[in-house]
Each structure stands twice: as C-alpha cells, then as structure tokens.
Amino acid sequence: MKQDITLKREGQFLAFLKPLVGKFTPNFQRMDIMGSLKKTVITIFSVLVFLGLWHLGSKALYNKEANFKIEKALNEQGAVAAEAERACIASGDSSCQPNTLPSPLQVWASLQSLIADHKVITADKAAFVEKMSERNAQLIAQGKDAIVYTGRASFVDIVLTSIKTVFAGFLLALLIAVPIGIVIGLSPSLRSAFNWFIQIFKPVSPVVWYLLVFMIVKTLYIGDSSDNAFVISFISVGLCAMWATLVNTAMGVSTVDKDYINVAKVLKLGTFQKIFKVILPSSLPLIFTGLRITLSVAWMVLIAIELLAQSQGLGLFVWEEFQNGANDSNSKIIVAMFVIGIIGFLLDRLMLAIQNMVSFNKNESV
Amino acid sequence: MAYLELNNIYKTYGEGDSSTEVLSNINLSIEEGEFVAIVGFTGSGKTTLVNLINGLLKPTSGEVLFKGQPVIDTSHERGVIFQNYSLLPWLTVGQNVFMAVKEAFPKENKTFLKQRVSDYVAMVGLSPAINKRPKELSGGMRQRVAVARALAMNPEMIIMDEPLGALDALTRGNLQDEILNIWSQDKRTALLITNDVDEGIYMADRIIPLKPGPNATLGPEFKIDIERPRDKTALNDNPNFKKTRNAIIEYLMDIGNERKSVSQKEYVLPDISPKSFVA
C-alpha cells in the first residue's frame, strides 16, 4: 500500500510541473530555467526512485522474516501458535516484530524521535543547571568543582562531539603535516630521510593507529581519572588522515615552477621571502587538495575510531544501537548513516569553497 | 674596459661521459649604452648564455665580468625579462611590480614604492589593469608587465631573453617600438636574445649570431649602421638593411647547412630487385 502512494506521488509531481514548464517556455531565459528545472526534476525523481526501491526492499525482507517466524511457530508449536504469531506481527506489537532493514518511513519516525529526545534532554539539562545553580555557586565559592550534568547525551550532542573530534583531528593533521611537508619539500636530503617513514606508516589501518595512540596516551594519563576518550580519538583521527596533506605539501613545495624560482633569484628575495612569497603561494592548490582529502579521510575513519575509543560520538552511537537491538535500533543506525553522509558532503563542500577562495587557479576546481 | 665581458666561456651540462658541452669558447664584450642582439636557432644555447650573464648559472670555465667584477650571483643591476613572462600568477599586476620594486629599493618608504609601481605600470600602458591578475591579461600585456617589472628596479643593464618570442606578429611590432622607446630615454645597456633577424636589425646596434649547439659559439658580428629612430616601414627599402639582413641570413643558413652535412651519412643500399614469381 505504502509503495503505491509513493508511485502515485511521483505521477502527481510530474503532472504538477507540466503547467509550470509551459509557463516558463516563452521566457527569454528559457534555456537556463529549463536546464536547472530539468536537473532538479531528475534529482527529485532519482531520490523518489531510491526511496521506492528501498521501501520495496525493506518490505520484501520484512515479509521474508515474518513468514519464517510464522513457519517456525507452525513447525515447532502447531497451528494455534502460528496463528497467534501472525496476529502478533500484524498488530505491530514490538515483541514479535521482524528485526530487519527498516523502511524509509520507520527511519523518518526515528529521526523525529531522536529530535524529540534531544528536546527532552535539553530541557532536563536546563532544569538541572537551574536547580544546581545555587549549590554550584556555593561549591565554587568554597573552591570545589561544580557539579555538572552527567546524564545521557542527545543525538545532537553526539553529532556535535563527532564534528568536534574531526575538527580537532584535522587541525592536528594540519599542524603536523603542513610544516613537515614544507620542510621535506624544500630539502631533498630530508625528503629521503622521511621517505621510508611515510611509505611505511601511510597504509597503516585506523584501528592500529588507535591502538598505538591508546598505548601512549593511556600511560601519559596514568593516575588521572578524567575521560581521555576524546583525546585518544582526535589524535588517532589526525594521525590517520594527515598523510595525504603531508605528501601533497611536500610534492607541491618540491615541484614549484622553475620560472618562479628564477624570478625569486633575479629579484634577490631572501630565504623567508622566497618561501612565503613564492614557494608557498605556488604550492597552495596542492596543499589544499591534500587538506581536502585529509578532511574526508578524517570523517571516514572517525566512526571506527570513536567506536573503539568509546568516545561519545556517532561511531559509538551506531555500535551501541546495534548492540542494543531495540525495535527502533536499526532505523536509528540508518538515521546516523544519513547524518554521517550529509555532514561528510558538507565538509567537503566547505573545503572546496576555501580552496577556491585561496587558489589563484580558479579553473582548477574539481 | 668593456662594460660587460665574457672571456672564454665554456658551459657543460652533466658529468663524465654523459656530459654535453652547450657553449664553447664564447667571447663577447658590450660597451656601456650599447644595444646588442644575439641571434640564433632555437636550442642553440641562447637561454644558457643569458643565464650565465644574469648570474643564474655559473660557467664551467671562463669568466663573466660586469663592470670589471666577476658575476657570481644575480644582481639588481642587471634586469631580466624572461621569455615566458614569469609573472607570479597569484599576484596582481601591481603586486608583481611592487615585489620587485620593494627588493630593489629596500630603504624607501611605501609611498615612494607605490608611486614607482604606478609610474612604471603607466609607462607600459597598463594602468587600467593594475589590479588584474596575469591570467586575465593577453600575452602582450603580460610581457609588458614583465618589462615594467624589470625596468622599475632601475637596472643598469637590461637582459631580454626572447621577450617577444611567444607573441603574434602585430603585438610583437608594437612591443618592439615600446621597448626601443623606453630604451632611448636613458640609453641603458641592453642585450637582446632573439631568433628573429629582422627584430635584431630593427632594434640593435650590433648583431652577433650564435652558431648552433652543442658547442655553440659566437659568430662574426654585424654592425647595423642605420640612423635611429628607425622607421619599420622605410626599413625594407633601406639598402643597408637589405645588405645586413642578407649577410646575416646567409651566414645562418650556411652554418645550418654545415650542421646538416656533418650529420649526413652515406648509406649503402643492398643490391636487390623484386623477386619474380613468374616461373
């Protein structure tokens, strides 16, 4: 039934556009409007097809599992039990629902429940702060630590933690990789000194990076009861993701156009002037290409690393929902999947915008 | 003593067996205020010669003397205009010139520097484009920026490495006039490297052909006794121009043919004829 509605909507949508198209055709900007309209229609259409296929797929999986359950009841407990099972599944009772790929509508409902949950938690938090304000003021006056809210994190908090981790890791990668890249790009002997290091550590998996960072940070934080999950995860993310920037920066700096170097020589620029006025500006496009790859790698490895580090981000959220196995866990995982994808896409757009802003070669944007 | 002197210059690239001698036994002397053109085929080592004079390269043996002092590094006294403009693409026209001016006059204040930049950009007729980037300019405009950049540093000598090589014929003619115009104002010493004999004759006091490399060396010089300012259209009817032009071209053709005949090899063809299948 549901999928019928979707299909009908598509039909209605296109029909609804027809008069609009007619209205715009005599316009002098016709080609342009037609072009963008066509693009929009194609995009919307493909989204609807995707949702339709998803819906059909989840429906098929749901039926397969439901039939299996009924069959099993029939084989093991007899016809009465099977009929009871069938009734239970049809009634939508959560105790006997098949646990499979959720439909788009279930995911949508989960998103809304996550937002509602966020509102509840925010209200809780505000109430807590309100209630504790007097006590906390006293504690601070006595020189003690204030009592902070330690309740459950809402979905929005989780997403913010992930974004914070990714940016901290990205910043770490930038601070390590760009200066080292410049230095080894400038000096061929340092380049060969670092080469084996880069070649060996570049392909190491995020999981192994996490373990390495864990070994070191654990010892550094020894005797300290504070939560170091955030520190471990952002350092691991940074170390995993920095290689693209390192290699690109070194490459950009070492392959500056010979003409520019000649100009620097003829103008008799000092070493610092030469680096900051000629070499760095000319290698900026490559450095930014590296940073863009670094940011997308950082976002990709983040999920795995948060899961391992037990850092309160999307990675841990996904894993906990999977372990949880509640009725709406699967649809929450899919919500997280979309949120991860959309944020990754937005981060890439952000980097592209910055890259285009600083790059002198405007035509090179890909 | 000459203003610029090249004594027995040899320049070799590479080491050992794989080395190639690009320039050999180059002797040249240029007087102050002279406009000298060196004409040669592409790949004959012209750019190497220029880089030896401006200090970007060091000779394998021999010495380059500028005002009696050996050239060991680049200097603001010798301004260079490169073949491919070599403007920094991330800087605007004004910024490109400013960078050079700031290096050439480190003690001057910003107002002076800015004034100088706008003066020289105006001189090459690019004031409206002062805030544009090289990408937005045509080839001729870019080379004008390079001219402004070189001259704004107030060099005592201008070295031009095929400055108009990449331009179309019309722009080329205009820029030749502009460079001559600027040169005639204070008669700085100028060295022009070119592959265009007409351009050399039109602009220079003296033309020296460069025999093609490897082992490139300078040929006999040709004096151009044509009154300045020269008129490009009248030049074609000038008997002096025709004579010099023919002499230079004949010389260059001769060495070109010489080079060809040296590399010519006699191939012995086998004595064969098509096999007859008709038995």
Features:
heterodimer; A: 366 residues; mainly alpha; MetI-like fold; 3 domains; 12 helices; 81% helix; extended; disordered N terminus; B: 279 residues; alpha/beta; 6-stranded mixed β-sheet; 8 helices; 20% strand; transmembrane (chain A); transmembrane helix (chain A); membrane (chain A); ABC transporter permease subunit (chain A); MetI-like (chain A)
Question: Can you characterise this structure?
Answer:
The complex is a heterodimer of chains A (366) and B (279). Chain A has 366 residues and is mainly alpha-helical. Chain A folds into three domains: 2-97; 102-152; 155-364, Orthogonal Bundle (MetI-like fold). In chain A, 81% of the residues lie in helices and 0% in strands. Chain A is built from twelve helices and no strands. Chain A has helices at 2-24, 30-77, 79-91, 104-141, 155-186, 188-201, 206-220, 229-254, 258-266, 271-309, 314-324, 329-358. In chain A, helix 2 packs antiparallel against helix 3. In chain B, the strands form two sheets. In chain B, strands 6-7-8-3-9-10 form a six-stranded mixed beta sheet, with helices on both faces. In chain B, strands 2-1-4-5 form a four-stranded antiparallel beta sheet, covered by helices on one side. In chain B, a hairpin with a 2-residue loop joins strand 4 and strand 5 (69-70). By secondary structure, chain B is of the alpha/beta class. The longest helix of chain B is centred in the C-terminal third of the chain and has 25 residues, at 239-263. Chain B has a domain at 86-155. The relative contact order of chain B is 0.16. Chain B is 37% helix and 20% strand.
